[in-house]
Every structure is written in structure tokens, then in C-alpha cells.
Design goal:
It is a single chain. By secondary structure, this protein is α+β, with helices and mostly antiparallel strands. Helix 1 (3-24) packs antiparallel against helix 2. The strands form three sheets. The protein has a four-stranded antiparallel beta sheet. A three-stranded antiparallel beta sheet has the order 8-2-9. The chain has helices spanning 3-24, 32-48, 98-110, 154-157, 186-198, 207-215, 220-224, 247-257, 272-285, 303-314, and strands spanning 72-74, 118-124, 127-134, 137-143, 149-151, 175-184, 228-239, 267-269, 293-300. Strand 3 (127-134) and strand 4 (137-143) form a beta hairpin. The chain contains ten helices and nine strands. It is globular, with a radius of gyration of 23 Å. The chain binds ligand IWH. The ligand Cc1ccc(Cn2cc(C(N)=O)ccc2=O)c(C)c1 binds at residues 18-19, 21-22, 28, 30, 32, 35-36.
Length: 332
């Protein structure tokens, strides 16, 4: 590799590390002016040697030329939406958790009475996207769409500062597809609507609409100005890299890969009673959170148990196997 290519690689990696420290860890190690100086040095080298610009260059964060339309992306693994267990409030305002108790019983039934460990995490009020990384580099991003296919929003997603353009840490998977939520924080939403009104534009109704409108912009330079965030919530596909056994391990792995995690707002418990207590705590905390959530998601933590249960819920409802008793153990 010649020294210009080496210099571009070095600046790209350095600026991506600085961006990770600043946006994801909220712990910059250099002053903004230093970041700015190196950023312009990289921009100049890329302008002089366009062929040497790297696919994970931080200059992609500012957004390129507008698209005329979004391409469609087919989801290899359908993007399902969660069935909502809505906890109605009775007149005293206490939450009736009957639906969660019923869920717990269904799960225990499906696991042959084995008590599962549950994980509970915020249900972010943003929009679901899928991110595809090949050999650690972000190569495609798509919205949920109808669950089977969505819009290709790769260029816009590259402007979201806490989405890594290249996965961090060692043990990089050859392929990994990460699903999560793109959202706008409450404070950024308020500031955006102020700007909208100042410029005679219609304000957005809520942060979810603002995030959706910002991501489904044909002009990535507008998306880049909208301060969007991303939180991962599952790994849809993976070839190589760390193989998680539980959902919590998946989230921790995403953290090691360079994603932001909703620290302190997730929990792992062995009983539905503890889950419901955590749910109540989060309901109290909700107004103080920097982002909007419209509930909590409760999952069986073990991926093996998820697949076992998933199988039952995906088994054809119109067919059933009627098995013969196990053969008598053959005596030899
Ligand atoms: C001029 C300028 C440059 C950069 C930034 C913000 N920032 C800082 C860093 C940093 N310190 O590691 C990394 C990425 C980044 O986007 C601002 C606000 C202003």
C-alpha cells in the first residue's frame, strides 16, 4: 500500500475512533478543533485521490448527493413487529398485568414447565432498521417496510453518528445483520421544531415522526443535520464472530462491536414478578429519559428457548403430529 493510501487508512481509523469516543462513549479524548483539523486533512487527501477513499470514511457522515428514489431491499429474515401486551390501567391507576401473567404461563407451558429467565428492555419509540456489515464494514441499511422488504437508506444511516461505519473490537464476523431502532432524543426534537417554526416549516408531531421523516429523506445532507441515534436490539443473521447464547449476550456483543446500549434501562430476571417491578420502575423513570419509549419489551433470555418457543408459535396451526409411544428400550 503506498504512503498516501496508508495515510488515508490511518486518518480514517483515527477519526472513527474519535467519533466513537465522542458520540457513543460521550468521552472525547481530543479537542473538537483537533478532530476538525484531521477531518479536513482526510477530506483533502480524498479529494486529491478519490479512488483511495475508504468505505468506512468519516467524511461519509456529512452525506452525499441526494437520491431520486430509494431502492427496495428484501429482508432475508423477515422484520417482525411485536405483539403488544397492553397493560390497561384500572381506576386506581394501578397497572393490570394480567396479559403479562398470561404470557408467562404460555412460555412456561411451551418450555415444559421450565422457569425461563426473562430480559426486559425499553420499547423505543422510533423506527426499526436493519444494518448489514460485511467483514466489519457497513454495506447496507434498510427500513422495516412491510416486514418482507424495506427502503434502502444506507447513505442516510451513515450520517447517524453512533452507528459504526466499521465494527470495533477483534473477532469481526464475516457477515452480521443487526436490527435496532433509529430515534431522535427529546431535546433534539424540541430544537428541530424550533428551527422548523423559525423557517416557516411545519413542526413534527413527535420524535418518532421526526426520526422517520429525517431518515426517509432523499437528501442525506438533511439527515446529517438531524442528530439521530441508534440502539441495537437483536442480531438477525451472523456468520463468524462471537456466538451469543442469550439475548443479553447479544446486546453486550453489540456494545463491544461499537454500538450504544441503553445502560441501566435493561434487566434480566428469573420471575415475572421481578419483571413487573422493573416495568413499574421504568414507568416512573420514563419522563426523565432522554428519549421516548412507549413501553417495555419482555423476552425469554435464552436464544435456544426462544427458538423452541418460536417453533411452537410458527408451527402450522392446521397440523399436529400424533406420535407413537417411545419404543421400548431394545434389550440387546
Ligand atoms: C469543529 C468541530 C469538530 C468536531 C465536533 C464534534 N466532534 C468531536 C469529536 C472529538 N472531539 O473527538 C469527534 C467527532 C465530532 O464530531 C464539533 C462539535 C465541532
Amino acid at each position: 500500500m503506498n504512503d498516501t493510501a496508508a495515510k488515508i487508512r490511518e486518518l480514517t481509523d483515527l477519526l472513527n475512533r474519535y467519533g466513537y469516543e465522542y458520540y457513543t462513549l460521550d468521552a472525547p479524548s481530543v479537542p473538537d478543533a483537533e478532530y476538525d483539523r484531521l477531518f479536513h486533512e482526510l477530506e483533502a487527501l480524498e479529494a486529491a485521490h478519490p479512488a483511495l477513499k475508504l468505505p468506512d470514511s468519516p467524511t461519509l457522515r456529512v452525506g452525499g448527493a441526494p437520491l431520486s428514489a430509494f431502492a427496495q431491499v428484501r429482508h432475508e429474515v423477515p422484520m417482525l413487529s411485536l405483539s403488544n401486551a397492553f397493560s390497561p390501567q384500572d381506576e386506581s391507576g394501578a397497572f393490570d398485568h394480567a396479559e403479562m401473567t398470561a404470557f408467562d404461563e404460555r412460555v412456561r407451558g411451551g418450555l415444559g414447565g421450565k422457569p425461563p429467565q426473562y430480559v426486559i428492555e425499553p420499547k423505543f419509540d422510533g423506527l426499526a432498521v436493519s444494518l448489514l456489515y460485511r467483514d466489519g464494514v457497513l454495506v447496507q441499511a434498510a427500513t422495516r417496510g412491510d416486514g418482507s422488504s424495506g427502503e434502502d437508506v444506507t447513505q442516510n444511516i451513515r450520517t447517524v453518528s453512533d452507528i459504526p461505519l466499521r465494527l470495533r473490537g477483534g473477532d469481526t464476523p464475516a457477515l452480521i445483520e443487526i436490527r435496532g431502532e433509529v430515534l431522535m432524543f427529546k431535546a433534539d426534537f424540541a430544537a428541530l421544531n424550533l428551527r422548523q417554526e423559525e423557517n416557516g416549516r411545519k413542526p413534527f408531531a413527535n420524535p418518532r415522526n421526526a426520526a422517520a421523516g429525517s431518515l426517509r429523506q432523499l437528501d442525506p445532507r438533511i439527515t446529517a443535520q438531524r442528530k439521530l441515534h441508534f440502539f441495537p436490539y437483536s442480531i438477525a443473521r451472523q456468520e463468524g464472530g462471537f456466538s451469543a447464547g442469550t439475548h443479553m449476550q447479544e446486546l453486550d456483543y453489540c456494545g463491544r462491536l461499537g454500538f450504544a446500549l441503553p445502560e441501566g434501562n435493561c434487566g434480566c430476571f428469573g420471575s415475572m414478578a421481578e419483571i413487573l417491578a422493573f416495568y413499574e420502575q421504568m414507568r416512573q423513570k420514563r419522563p426523565a429519559l432522554p428519549y421516548e419509549i412507549d413501553g417495555m419489551v419482555v423476552k425469554v433470555n435464552s436464544l435456544a428457548q426462544q427458538h423452541e418457543l418460536g417453533f411452537i408459535s410458527r408451527a402450522p396451526r392446521w397440523a399436529v403430529a400424533h406420535k407413537f409411544p417411545a419404543e421400548e428400550a431394545l434389550t440387546v
